[in-house]
Amino acid sequence: WPLHLPWIDAIARLKRERGAVIMAHSYQSPEIFHGVADVTGDSLALAQAAADCDAELIVLCGVHFMAETAKILAPNRTVLIPDLEAGCSLASSITAADVRALRAQHPGAPVVTYVNTSAAVKAESDACCTSANAVQVVEAMGADKVIFLPDRFLGSHVASQTGIELVLWNGVCEVHEQFTVQQARHARERFDAVLVAHPECPPEVQAEADFVGSTTAMGRWLERERPDRVALITECSMADNLRTRFPQIEFIKPCNLCPHMKRITLPNIHACLSELRHEVTVPDDVAVKARRALERMLAIGR
Ligand code: 13P
Ligand code: SF4
C-alpha cells in the first residue's frame, strides 16, 4: 500500500516512542491490520491479549465495546481508541435496566452476554462470551434455561448447537443481518465457492454455510480445509486480510462494510498516539462486576 507508507512509518515511530501496543480486530482495513497492528484477531483474541498485556499503553483499533473490554481486563493500562464514535448496533440495542427486567421475568436463569455490549450490561451478567466460545459458555452455566443477550441470530445458533432453552433479545448486527440466502446460493452456484459465515448472520444464511464461526475460527478453518474458492459471508476486510495469508485461495464477494469499524483510519491512529486521545475509562463499580463476567469467559477460553 504505497500511499499508506508515510503514515505506517510515522505510526511505527510514535508507537516505539510511546511504548504502545496496537491491537486490531479482523475487520480493520489491511493497511491497519497488516501495516501497524502488533496483535490481531477476533474479539476473544483481543480480550485475551489485553488481559496479558505488559505495555503501558494499548491502542484499540476496533469498536468501543472492544476498548472497554480491554480497559476492564487491563485496569492499570491506558486504553485509547482512535474514534470514540465507533459503536455497534448490538451494543446499542440493550441497556443494564433491560437486563435487570429480564432477570425479574426469568428468576434463576443465568445471564450470558455477548461481548458486543456496554460495560454496564456486562456488569449485570453472569458470564460474557464471544462468537468463538458462545456454545461453551452457555453449556458451562449448567442450566436448563439461559438468558442470552443481545444477538438473536447468534442466540439461535447457540440454541441449535446445545439444545438448551435460551431467552433471546431482539438485537442484530446491522452488517450481518443484511446477508441473504440468495447471495449465499449465488456464490456457491455461480462461482463454485465454499461458504463460510459468521454466526451473526440470519439463521437461514448460516444453514447454507459449510462452516460457521468467529473471525479467527474462519482463518483456522481455511488453514485446515484449503478450498480453491471461498465466500466469506461477513465484513469485507476479513477477506482482504486473509487474502494475504492465503494467496492460493480465491475470495468471492458478497461482503458488507461495518461503518463503525471503518471509522478507524491511519490518520486517526496517528493522532491517537501523538495526542494520547481518546482515553476509554470505566467507572470502578461497573468495572469490578463486568470483570467477573469477562474473567469467567476467559477461563472457559476458546
Ligand atoms: P468476532 O467473530 O471476531 O468476535 O467478531 C464479532 C464482531 O462482529 C466484531 O465486530
Ligand atoms: Fe457491531 Fe456488526 Fe459492526 Fe461488529 S460488524 S461492530 S457486530 S455492527
From TrEMBL:
Question: What EC class is this?
Answer: transferase
Could you list this entry's UniProt keywords, alphabetically sorted. Answer: 4Fe-4S, Cytoplasm, Iron, Iron-sulfur, Metal-binding, Pyridine nucleotide biosynthesis, Transferase
Binding of [4Fe-4S] cluster occurs at: C88, C173, C258
Q: In which pathway does it act?
A: Cofactor biosynthesis; NAD(+) biosynthesis; quinolinate from iminoaspartate: step 1/1
InterPro entries given for it? NadA (IPR003473), NadA_sf (IPR036094), Quinolinate_synth_type2 (IPR023066)
| Entry's EC annotation | 2.5.1.72
Binding positions (iminosuccinate): H25, S43, Y114, V115, N116, S131, H198, P199, E200, T215
Top-level taxon of the source organism: Bacteria
Cofactor binding notes: Binds 1 [4Fe-4S] cluster per subunit.
Which co-factors does it depend on? [4Fe-4S] cluster
Among Gene3D superfamilies, the record links this protein to:
NadA-like
| Subcellular locations according to the entry | Cytoplasm
Q: Which GO terms describe its molecular function?
A: transferase activity
Work out whether the entry's keyword set contains Iron.
yes
Give the family from UniProt. Belongs to the quinolinate synthase family. Type 2 subfamily.
Name the UniProt record assigns to this protein: Quinolinate synthase
Organism of origin is Lysobacter stagni
